Amino acid sequence: MNNEKWDALIACLRKMERAAVAFSAGVDSTFLLKAAHVALGKNVTAITGRSVSFPERECREAAAFCREIGVEHVIVEVDQMAIPGFRDNPPDRCYLCKKELFSAFLTAARERGIGIVAEGSNADDVGDYRPGLRAIAELGIQSPLKDVGLTKDEIRALSRELGLPTWDKPSMACLATRFPYGERITPEKLAAVDAAEQFLRDGGFRQVRVRAHGDIARIEIDRGQFGMLTERSAEIERTLRALGFSYVALDLGGYRTGSMNETLTKR
User: Fold this and answer.
1) 82 against 262, higher pLDDT
2) Which helix (H) or strand (E) holds 159?
3) Quick check: 258 pLDDT over 80?
4) CATH annotation of 175-266
């Protein structure tokens, strides 16, 4: 592969000699794990956190990919509901969660004689409100994609060249991001949001977020699919009501990442 940033990434990873990769089966972490496998071979281990905010289907995809490329896969159980402050969903919830999650990853790695844990933040993540990056920095977690300046579009293009199944996978984020800051998070609410989004994905909606505002479900999809949603509005409303929502609304702004962060500037 003739790409300067790819070459820089492989060189960066080879310097680690042995590493664990935080692996969620998303676009960025799949690309990073593949690169680490190219650079380090058997000296890379994938670590996935299983929790109530991480859909089980993603955990299965992570395990399947590790089997396919022949990488050791470790699953760490994380009880997010036991993390102090997590349920209350403060603006720094992601910091609280990432600190606990990556501390567990470090422990799992060190138990296997691995001193470095790498994760998949990219160059585009720097400008957004991402308190989790502070936890990653405090713990000394490595972010090689960000370090070599790889953007999301570049990662998708290189993933396609590599034949990775995630090159065009829709962006995924922790299910806890579906709730306004300050709204209490429960396992039941997380399950309802997960089921609602899976229903919409199964119905052909590619990029989906169901943001839960109390008993209101605010659906974010690509604007190009608004017509398809309105044609099926009765079925969608009926299904989401059955999941516990009293009202179902379409966000005319369409899908965008981090929409819950928009309220922070108004506080």
Assistant:
1) 82
2) helix 152-162
3) no
4) 3.30.70.2210
If 0-12 CB within 10 Å is exposed, 13-18 middle and 19+ buried, where does residue 205 land? buried
Sequence-distant (6+) residues with CB within 8 A of 113 are 18
| Per-residue pLDDT at 178 | 96
User: Where in the chain are the domains?
Assistant: 4-162, 175-266
Spatial contact of 6 and 38, defined as CB atoms under 8 Å apart: no
Tell me the per-residue pLDDT of 183-241, one tens digit each, with 9 for 90 and over. Answer: 999 999 999 999 999 999 999 999 999 999 999 999 999 999 999 999 999 999 999 99
Query: Helix, strand or coil for residue 181?
Result: coil
Instruction: Give the separation between CA 105 and CA 114, rounded to whole angstroms.
Output: 10
Element (H, E) at 24: none
Specify the pTM.
0.92
pLDDT of residue 130: 81
Using CA of residue 197, residue 200, residue 204, residue 207, what is the dihedral sign? negative
What is the mean predicted confidence (pLDDT) over 11-22?
98
Burial environment of residue 127 by CB neighbours within 10 A (0 to 12, 13 to 18, 19 or more)? exposed
Q: Which residue matches tokens 């296997």? A: 112
Beta-sheet strands, E only, within 8-43: 19-22
- 95 contact partners, CB below 8 Å, separation of at least 6: 131, 132, 134, 135
Residue 263 is predicted with a pLDDT of 66
Q: Residues 6 or more apart from 52 whose CB is under 8 A from it?
A: 80, 81, 175, 187, 190, 191
Fold exhibited by the domain 4-162:
Rossmann fold (3.40.50)
Q: CA dihedral in degrees (17, 22, 23, 24; nearest 10)?
A: -160
pLDDT at residue 129, as a whole number: 73
